[in-house]
Backbone:
């Protein structure tokens, strides 16, 4: 019963959080400052997400095969390699190092 | 718009969306398996993937419950990780301007993947297509792999063994690449990542991404004024 409550509250809460961004009054978002903030937000949040998902496990900082995968992805992106090549090469590098 | 250009954009979006969708399946399998170990029923697992639909929040919830943590901290961490979807939502709302019921549907599938794809196609004018195709691909494959994981366990082994734990970061780097074309934006991205990492050991799971992302934007605004 308690487990169901946790599942339902987390589900409803996370769905509500998603909706929250869509109901911000548009007049608040019309200023140039707000526009620039909104445009930068996905870039900074995804950058932070990348850093945390590569260099952290729980609350610990770690340096493992994921870092090598990220390095390969960065190099390939800088030479404008195709999307699929970037993803597959990064995974292959991380898997190879993980296996060693 | 030129027909060939449109066709090639459609193909690019479909292929990328499929790649991203496939890359979430090991996490879906793993999530399903971890959930069953944490004594969630199949129905509960399905509700999470269908309604909550946000990998990081779902994993946090069942991992903490499975490790014997309190329901309060499990739900709290899931919500904390869900805040960034709301921030994405504000951006997606101004980018795609949905109306009526579409707004609710769009909000439900506003996650890292669909946002990254929509933002990456902002200049090409194909953001709406990129958003919906990616959302559909991830929604279907995430839910299917979740059920498979809950029923038969994690057949693929851990995402780390297949290297798929870097599929997400690699895909996001590739999608952000064109946006990081100025020294200023590169520094902002790097700053967001570093600030997030510095806070990892000292704040609860879920907070570093928000702290890094929001602080970097605040710094950008201060520098720009």
Residues:
């Amino acid at each position: 019963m308690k487990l169901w409550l946790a599942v339902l509250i987390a589900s409803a809460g996370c769905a509500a959080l998603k909706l929250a961004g869509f109901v911000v009054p548009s007049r608040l978002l019309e200023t140039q400052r707000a526009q620039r903030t909104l445009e930068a937000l996905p870039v900074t949040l995804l950058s932070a997400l990348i850093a945390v998902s590569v260099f952290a496990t729980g609350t610990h900082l770690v340096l493992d095969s994921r870092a090598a995968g990220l390095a390969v992805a960065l190099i390939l992106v800088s030479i404008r390699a195709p999307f699929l090549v970037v993803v597959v090469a990064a995974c292959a590098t991380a898997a190879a190092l993980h296996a060693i | 718009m030129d027909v060939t250009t449109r066709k090639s954009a459609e193909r690019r979006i479909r292929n990328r969306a499929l790649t991203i969708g496939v890359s979430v399946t090991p996490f879906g399998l793993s999530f399903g398996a971890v959930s069953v170990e944490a004594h969630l029923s199949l129905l509960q697992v399905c509700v999470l993937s269908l309604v909550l639909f946000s990998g990081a929040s779902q994993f946090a919830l069942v991992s903490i419950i499975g490790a014997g943590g309190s329901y309060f901290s499990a739900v709290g961490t899931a919500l904390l990780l869900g805040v960034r979807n709301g921030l994405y939502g504000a951006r997606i709302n101004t980018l795609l301007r949905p109306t009526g019921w579409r707004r609710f549907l769009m909000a439900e599938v506003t996650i890292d993947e669909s946002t990254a794809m929509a933002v990456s196609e902002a200049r090409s004018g194909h953001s709406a297509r990129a958003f919906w195709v990616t959302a559909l691909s991830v929604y279907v494959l995430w839910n299917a792999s979740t059920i498979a994981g809950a029923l038969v366990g994690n057949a693929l082994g851990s995402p780390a063994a297949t290297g798929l734990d870097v599929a997400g970061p690699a895909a996001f780097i590739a999608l952000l690449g064109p946006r990081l074309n100025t020294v200023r934006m590169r520094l902002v991205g790097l700053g967001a990542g570093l600030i997030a990492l510095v806070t990892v050991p000292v704040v609860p799971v879920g907070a570093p991404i928000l702290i890094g992302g929001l602080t970097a934007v605040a710094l950008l605004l201060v520098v720009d004024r």
User: Anything to note?
Assistant: Strands of chain A lie at 56-57, 60-61.
